[in-house]
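Please check this chain.
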Amino acid sequence: MMKRSFRAGAVYFLLLYVVGFLLGATRELLLAPRFGVVVASALEAIPMLAAIFHFAPLIARRFGIPPKSGWRLLMGCFGLTLLIGAEVAMTRAMRGLSPEQWLAHFASIEGAIYAVLLACFAAMPWLRR
């Protein structure tokens, strides 16, 4: 079951990372210049949360991970670990920010919105059947 949880977490990460990358590009290129960073982050969060809500149980079921089990928590936490690693690496590559600068971003309103999304990402496999 552990192996399935790790595989499910990896698939969960990959799928939601692609969705997040596309939404992030839309936020940065179209929404932020027009509405500002905070509003753009809030607007991006809505479809991102919908994707998390939809795909978390779908992937868990696909890999046969029982509902309300610790294995679903492992799936979400492993996916989150991969996501944070990718975010730190991508932020460094695209914006030249250090991991410390990436962490400092959480002190802003848009960073708080992102932190809530990360928490939802980690917990949703367990929360949804």
Summary: The chain is about 85% helix and 0% strand. The chain has a mean pLDDT of 95. Helices lie at 2-35, 37-62, 70-95, 99-104, 109-127.
